[in-house]
Amino acid sequence: MLDKTLTPSSFETRLYEGWERSGAFAADPNSAAQPFTIMIPPPNVTGSLHMGHALTFTIQDTLIRWRRMQGRDALWQPGTDHAGIATQMVVERLLAAEGNQDRRSMGREAFLERVWQWKAESGGTITKQLRRLGASLDWPRERFTMDEGLSAAVREVFVTLHKQGLIYRDRRLVNWDPKLLTAISDLEVESREVKGSLWHLRYPVEGEPGRFLVVATTRPETMLGDTAVAVHPADARFADLIGKKLVLPLVGRSIPVVADEYSDPEKGSGAVKITPAHDFNDFEVGRRHGLPMPSVLDAEARVMLAEIAAELRAVEGVADPAFVQGLDGKDRFAARKAIVAKLEELGLIETIEPHTHQVPHGDRGGVPIEPRLTWQWYCDAGTLAKPCVEAVETGRMRFVPKQWENTFFAWMRDIQPWCVSRQLWWGHQIPAWYGPEGTIFVEKTEAEAQEAARKHFGQDVPLERDPDVLDTWFSSALWPFSTLGWPERTKEVARYYPGDVLVTGFDIIFFWVARMMMMGQHFMGGEVPFRDIYIHGLVRDEKGQKMSKSKGNVMDPLELIDAYGADALRFTICALTGPGRDVKLGRKRVEDHRSFATKLWNAARFLEMNGIAPEAAWDPAQAETPLARWVLDAANRAVAEADAALEAYRFDEYAAACYRFVWGGFCDWFIEFAKPVLNGSEGAEKAEIKGAAQHVLGVILRLLHPVMPFVTEELWDRFGYGPECSLIRAPWPQAVAVREAEAARAELDWVVALVTEVRAARAEVNVPPSVTTPLLVKDAAPESLARAARWIEAIRRLGRVTEITPLSGEAPKGVAQVVVGEATVMLPLAGVIDLGAERARLLKARGSAEGETRKIAAKLGNADFVARAPEEVVEENRERLAAAEAEIARLDAALARIAG
RNA sequence: GGGCGCUUAGCUCAGCGGUAGAGCGCUUCGUUUACACCGAAGAUGCCGGGGGUUCGAAUCCCUCAGCGCCCA
Hints:
about 45% helix; about 15% strand; 4-stranded antiparallel β-sheet; single chain; alpha/beta
């Protein structure tokens, strides 16, 4: 016997282990079935399961379970990425907490060993948590971006791209994180609004004592590296200054005034100081005008004078080398204070206005990033992006929802060279070796580099390997094929590439999607890495706020699973995942949706109590009774709706179709109609209803399995539809042949309408539930009377009716009346009903029928409508008008009967 | 400043040319062989404002307003 209450925790772990142990999640490269592949966007190895994961993995698992049941050879590739900076930070923090020596003093090798040790101990957190969610990943195939195989792919790709000229070294400005001491991607930079000041500084014009050019800046400390001041060429205020020289305050260096459209006459003073080594825009201006580009801040963003020391010059009242020398080694913010104070003292500050502006911050380190001129490795993303743009334009790859392709195009068409080197230790060390005279040898191994160097120099030379590592996204970009064994020519690569769909959030389009596309197409013969890209929203809290630790509104999916079961969480997520919309999720929503799992459990329990059990031989095509045919037909439609919804990535519609059928159809009507039969004597009818019930329960369990895997598997096993843990591999339901479905639908619809009308009338005229009544039927067609007779038991039970008889002679006094199709049904309730309420009820029904009539009549009275609208629309309106008019007539008759 | 999206019942959202819907909440009633995480019934809408296209607009177009996100 099933327990009276559903307790998900009593079976979730057991079932998951059962599936995993039996190999139910495994892809089979030798299968004849058509593959279906989803590459998990590998979560960060330092991560733990949050709501965003719950959303994305519920969607992926729903898709993969559905396709697997459809008989596809499903591969859901698991794994994690090594998350260079994040992991390095985690381990460094750990070392600090343990009171151990820091990474630099322990050395690179020992540190990396410590990272691997951490990975072995803690790196599996998220993969364990994914199991709680029910994610059916092919675990034995789990990969890690730092695995030997994936590392070999990285070396192969780097060396190949280098030989093709698509990876090169360059000295340009990068986003430098002065806390983490590495270059970071512009995607790892976030703008934060900061309240600062706009300082208006006076730069003296050379040879014109007393004349100044005022520049406005938010970063006065960078002035040490100024090499020009730019004004707009069309700005009349400064026209005569163009080409003249200014004395750079404090430093004493002479710098030119240049004309450049970058300078915005509307902003600040209209003149802008140019510091090419410390600002991206200034860098471009510097390039255009051939300006020197001295750096004045070091890796840790402290003042560094080495590149300007030779040019320090004393100028009375303007520049003071001693002061500048005193800044050497000072932090950038301390230097700003000192410089502002000194300028103020010299009277070189015109005004200071409060100014709120966007300051780029590193998203990991949290400190303002510093544009910095360094040598780095770059990948020619522009060239790699072109075929990706084309693949989306021609439909070889498809964004769902489609509008995201705009975001993608906008970024891809304007993509900048991709800085792939990072000044970290944890990651794939760049396979580049430096020889004498700065020669570079890029090879897969040190031996090959040695060999190349020997060829070049004609003798063995000492080589030194580039200490930097590659951006984590570099290895993640290879994920769709490196996980399959590439560069080996494995059958997995041949079979599972390209994937069918990539599921991810829009915030990741630039990271995953774009980079996987670039590398996938370049290295896989132009073949795209996945055909569909399903973009879901973000999980927000009930009020629509982004979840964040600082706001304290985060929800823990594991805690919700503990409280309500994984199925409830998954079903909630599916039900709320509308197209292109964020998911507002609260505890209450999960609680609400849990009741659906409970409902399913209780319905199954009822069937079990009535001795309903799987009968594999039962043939739905032989069903004779209208009820069996009706429920089989409704199940067919539910399956069709679910399929269509899943094909279209409409998870909300899939959930709604299941909910409607299971609750609104199977439980509310089928089970209720079945009760009298199940209660009655054994015989063909009872056998058939039991047959239909077990058949449809089997359909329901399979239909719901992708979204509610645990409770469906538990019920499947307990009922004995198959061996333990076999639902996951059971065939997806298909429509069955139902004879005369149309007639069954008409019959049941009529009974439902009768019961509903009778219930409504009783409720509205305040008939106590304890009172039962006969029904007197007037003007009923013989078919209606026959139906009433066939369904009398169900109608008795559901409508609190005693018997149904045709009305003979006059209607009794004190009746409540309802209209069902052509018939008027009376409930003789003299002395019980409130006649006033009954009259009001009938008038209200008449009112709405009349409103309907007026609307349709007006439409049909419009000659243009009749002439131009499609014939079937006109015909449909004529029918509706006739029906509404007939209903008014019957209601009028009913009103007349109670009038006296 | 550029781009995208949203605005439909109290709340969360579907519908996107032809009868305005769902779930939750609310009100009333209810211990009938599953289920109170339940059952029955009921109320609630100028489909953001304005203009246009059309026989017909929540749905298509224009415009305005408010909200959100992304990129500068």
